[in-house]
Design goal:
Layout (H helix, E strand, L loop, with lengths): L15 H9 L4 E8 L17 E8 L4 E3 L6 H15 L14 H12 L2 H4 L4 H9 L10 E2 L1 H6 L1 H10 L10 H11 L4 E3 L5 E4 L5 H8 L8 E9 L8 E8 L4 H8 L8 E3 L10 E6 L2 H9 L15 H7 L7 E7 L8 E3 L3 H9 L3 H9 L22 H11 L6 E7 L21 E6 L18 E10 L3 E6 L8 H20 L6 H9 L3 E3 L1 H7 L3 H4 L7 H9 L8 E2 L4 E7 L12 E12 L4 E14 L7 H7 L7 E6 L4 H7 L3 H10 L2 E13 L3 H8 L4 H16 L3 E5 L5 H6 L8 E6 L2 H17 L12 E6 L14 E5 L7 H15 L3 E7 L4 H4 L33 H14 L2 E10 L7 E10 L21 E7 L4
Parallel strand pairs: 24-25, 24-27, 25-26, 27-28
Antiparallel strand pairs: 1-2, 2-3, 4-6, 5-6, 7-8, 7-11, 9-10, 10-11, 11-12, 13-14, 13-15, 15-16, 16-17, 18-19, 19-22, 20-21, 20-23, 22-23, 26-31, 28-30, 29-30
Helix pairs in contact: 1-2, 3-7, 3-8, 13-22, 15-16, 22-23, 28-30
Length: 955
């Protein structure tokens, strides 16, 4: 009555592989073969061979026969399939699993008994290493190991314990009474020590088994010295390093017990792994006396009792469950890879790196190996510009570090049903409601319903994210407002938004509960404040990311060693000194800056300067907050070839100690001296931003969408039924046109890039095949075809289309090739209307300042004489308005076309005109047929290769 409802244990069903193991044990041999899968791109008729996904096939060898599975995306699926095939061949019905269902308690007893068999002793299993080490012990401890190790070192036994009592997942110590109860039931093979938490085999192992198992370790060194970390339970005491001395004939837990002040190592409790799951970094601590008394008197103990005031907040924060008393953090243990004892030193630097890995920005800093310099960027622009671990992986890592459930990513696809109204030259897009949703977990494979998710064949994508605590339920729910053309971009941007809000919280851990929800709302995140605070309840005790030594800063400003001539408000930056001549090449928003740097810790007023962090070459994107603010503020004032030296305030102490090689020395320096950071940097080179990135900084919608709107206007006016896009690339124009109702019946694309044409084919096929219902904008399109070929050659099959487009293509040719294209297209292809766009070079001075506010400046004061760079590294030329007008006017007069000029982005009446200039050619009369009276030079005729073709009549 009124008590906690009893926990109902789940019955477990063995997988096919587990059943094979029960029957054959080590005689079952699995071999994985990597195979190349066939492409399933959902694009029939594509002439370009496609590389399929990497798949795995499993061969299972049994004593009497072998089987080979089908190919699967995951290795474990291939193994399970092979095992199931073997069971069917053996005459075992894999579906009839009732006989294989065991009560969890019975399964726990069975598993525990197996761990004490002769076969298991010689296996490459972490627990097997403990058994072998225990057999080298002397006296009454011979062959005994602590009970606490069983659920920790044997994943299967731990999983069974969780099925009996799910609370074990959040408090592994509760597995101990379950294991002891199972041992009591398995008394025929397992023995326990009275009044202690030791466990061993009841009947001795045969001598030959013992000899063969431990002989390989007889030649190990006499003793091993291992650096570990001592974590006092009192927050008033500092974390410090210690050394474990493990003898070759001893047991490492005995050495750890001595450091914890224990004479009985069975009282040592062991945490789950800290940090990476594949590591052997664990926390070792003493079981609370009250818990031991309760446990040894009643195996039905339901909670871990402790002494008042002994709670270890720092150790508990790392482990994810309650730890009491002092603890030791060590990387030592037995693994699946070797029978030898694995060990690695853990320094104070390692400790602080583990600590900052629990902060969103800390995970990113570590991935860049630039703890003092890198910062979690504020925006995900492109995959190529993003450096370090991607946001989705960062978010998954954060959840694992805090023992949260894997985040759930729900990708919503929205077909691009935009309004067809065009306002001037600017096209406003309206996205319809979602039509499809895909869900994946952080640790699962991507789920894409239309081939490659990055293709964007669904129009646009939005990604919702849900994060749950294993105890508190749903704690974070992100609902996006922005959509993206690529599925992967939607996932990465949503992940970054969640990370940025979490980062905001970690920088203000003393934030009042009532302030949590409003700050989350600003990021489109919904939280339950009480559940959230409870989940991260230990964080304020451990981290102090707002830590800034204001006293030190005031003393620095008063110090004679600080140059008062340069102080940058808001950045904590002093004494900036830039050296070297101005090369004229400086970074701007969106560009990649490459620097080398050294960060020093300097004691004020003394000749003490300790290097903390350095990079021979470090790259980052300007304008997205990818580095700490003071560094970017300096780099944007430099030009390539210049160097700079400046001083800044200290960051949080845990970041400094995580970067320091000699953390003990640095900690002493920080504790006794007034210090600051000194940076010495050099700007090595700058890579200019991508054209699209610069344009997006100034235009909404981007110029690419405005060009589509412009072309659409002329398509409607001309009632065109056939369209050729010269230099179609990845099909962005053709794809966009399918979202609007037009008179087009046939669309054609020509390009020289197979890769781009393949992408275009997938996009167009998906959209055309899907839009087969009445009312769909593209229903009028009866056929589509993509050709591989150069647009400077003429293919007679494409003669006389209604409208041709060539948007932002000619600047990728040499100027003589652009002139040749103009002659070929107007003289031989003879479209009724041709639309050609190209960048306006005069507008680059505005674009390359990359600051929207600068658009209001007087263009006459914008240093028009300054030599601007081209917008894209692949551009062979960029024309001024006069140069473009002369080129187009000459072509029009030469080939009996009229021409008018317009553009998008900017205004014709305001200098420097449009950002993207456009010429619209109109044919004046009926063209001459390309017959004997009007021959086409043979060297200009080239039949294009058909890459992909689609016909509605074939559907």
């Amino acid at each position: 009555m009124g008590g906690t409802p009893p926990v109902v244990a789940k019955k477990t069903t063995h997988t096919p592989k587990a059943r094979i193991h029960q029957k054959f044990g080590s005689k079952a041999c699995y071999k994985i073969e990597e195979v190349q899968g066939t492409t399933q791109d959902g694009c029939p008729g594509l002439a370009i061979p496609q590389k399929g996904p990497c798949l795995f096939r499993c061969s299972l060898q049994l004593p009497e026969f072998s089987v080979v599975s089908e190919a699967f995306k995951r290795k474990k699926d291939a193994e399970q399939s092979a095992a199931e095939m073997a069971l069917q061949k053996l005459g075992c019905d894999s579906a009839a699993s009732d006989s294989m269902v065991q009560e969890p308690q019975d399964e726990l007893i069975s598993r525990l008994s197996y761990l004490f068999t002769d076969e298991f002793l010689s296996s490459l299993h972490p627990l097997g290493g403990h058994f072998r080490a225990a057999l080298r012990r002397g006296g009454n401890l011979y062959g005994l190991i602590p009970v606490s190790l069983f659920a920790v070192c044997d994943a299967k036994l731990g999983s069974i314990c969780k099925s009996i009592n799910p609370v074990v997942d959040s408090n592994p110590l509760l597995a101990i009474p379950l294991v002891m109860k199972a041992a009591a039931s398995a008394s025929g093979s397992v023995a326990t020590s009275e009044g202690q938490l030791w466990m061993g085999r009841k009947n001795p192992y045969p001598p030959e088994i013992i000899q063969s198992s431990i002989s390989s370790q007889l030649n190990s060194p006499e003793s091993i010295w291992i650096e570990a970390i001592h974590i006092p339970y009192s927050l008033e005491k500092n974390v410090d390093s210690l050394t474990l001395n493990v003898s070759s004939t001893g047991y490492y837990l005995d050495a750890i017990g001595q450091k914890l002040g224990l004479t009985d190592a069975s009282k040592i409790l062991v945490s789950r792994t800290v940090g990476k799951a594949s590591s052997e970094v664990r926390l070792y601590f003493s079981a609370p006396e009250r818990y031991l008394v309760d446990l040894l008197s009643d195996l039905n103990v339901k909670e871990v009792a402790s002494e008042e005031g002994s709670f270890n907040a720092r150790a508990s924060y790392f482990s994810g469950h309650a730890i009491f008393g002092n603890a030791i953090l060590a990387s030592i243990g037995y693994t699946w890879k070797s029978t030898d004892l694995f060990h690695e030193d853990i320094s104070l630097q390692s400790y602080y790196r583990l600590l900052i890995s629990k902060i969103p920005s800390g995970v990113y800093k570590l991935s860049r190996e630039a703890i003092l310099t890198a910062e979690l960027p504020m925006a995900f622009t492109t995959r190529t510009n993003w450096k370090g671990t991607f946001p989705k992986d960062l978010l998954c890592s954060f959840c694992r570090q805090h023992c949260l459930s894997e985040p759930v990513f729900s990708v919503v696809s929205t077909p691009s049903k935009q309004s067809s109204e065009v306002s001037g030259s600017c096209k406003r897009l309206k996205v319809a409601q979602s039509s499809a949703e895909e869900t994946e977990h952080g640790n699962g494979p991507g789920v894409a319903s239309h081939g490659n998710g990055s293709v964007g064949s669904e129009g646009t994508f939005m990604c919702e994210i849900k994060i749950s605590s294993k105890l508190q339920g749903l704690i974070i729910e992100y609902s996006p407002k922005d959509s993206y053309r690529k599925r992967s971009d939607a996932i990465q941007n949503s992940s970054l938004r969640v990370l940025l809000w979490l980062n905001t919280y970690f920088k203000e851990l003393d934030m009042p509960v009532e302030k949590l929800a409003p700050t989350a709302d600003a990021f489109n995140i919904h939280i339950c404040p009480e559940k959230f605070v409870k989940t991260f309840t230990l964080c304020p005790f451990i981290h102090n990311l707002r830590q800034r030594n204001e006293t030190q800063r005031d003393r620095l400003l008063d110090s004679k060693s600080i140059n008062q001539s340069y102080i940058m408000p808001g950045h904590g930056l002093y004494s900036l000194n830039i050296e070297g001549s101005d090369s004229g090449t400086s970074p701007s928003n969106g560009s990649l800056a490459y620097i080398n740097y050294v960060a020093y810790l300097v004691a004020d007023g003394e000749h003490m300067k300790e290097p903390l962090e350095s990079k021979d070459e470090f790259e980052f994107e300007i304008g997205v907050g990818a580095v700490v603010p003071h560094l970017e503020a300096v780099v944007t004032q430099m030009s390539v070839g210049q160097s700079a030296c400046f001083n800044v305030d200290l960051p949080p102490q845990e970041l400094i100690l995580a970067a320091a090689g000699d953390s003990v020395k640095i900690f002493s320096l920080l504790s006794s001296k007034v210090c600051f950071l000194e940076y010495s940097i050099a700007l090595l080179r700058v890579t200019e931003p991508l054209e699209d990135r610069m344009e997006q900084a100034l235009f909404s919608p981007p110029l690419s969408k405005q060009r589509v709107g412009f072309a659409l206007q002329y398509i409607k006016e001309s009632s065109a039924s056939t369209l050729i896009d010269f230099g179609c690339g990845s099909g962005s124009l053709l794809d966009s046109l399918l979202d609007f109702p037009t008179s087009l019946a046939k669309i054609v694309g020509v390009d020289i890039s197979q890769k781009s044409l393949t992408r275009a084919a997938k996009i167009l096929h998906s959209k055309l095949s899907r839009n087969s219902h009445a009312g769909e904008p593209s229903l009028g399109v009866k056929s589509a075809i993509l050709y591989e070929g150069s647009i400077t050659y003429y293919d007679p099959r494409l003669y006389g289309c209604d409208i041709g487009t060539c948007l932002e293509v000619i600047e990728h040719m040499e100027e003589d090739e652009a002139c040749l294209f103009g002659d070929v297209v107007l003289s031989y292809f003879c479209p009724k209307v041709l639309i050609v766009s190209t960048p306006n070079y005069e507008y680059n001075v505005i674009l390359q300042r990359s600051n929207p506010s600068n658009q209001e400046e007087d263009p006459d004061e914008a240093s028009q004489s300054q030599a601007c760079k081209f917008r894209n590294h692949d551009h062979k030329f960029e024309w001024t308005r006069d140069e473009f007008n002369r080129w187009a006017s000459n072509l029009a007069g030469k080939h009996n076309y009229s021409v008018e000029f317009s553009g998008v982005g900017g205004s014709a009446d305001v200098e420097p005109g449009f950002a993207s200039q456009i010429a619209v050619f109109r044919r004046r009369g009926i063209p001459l047929e390309t017959d004997d009276n009007h021959p086409t030079p043979v060297d200009l005729i080239r039949q294009y290769e058909v890459v992909w073709e689609w016909n509605r009549s074939d559907r």
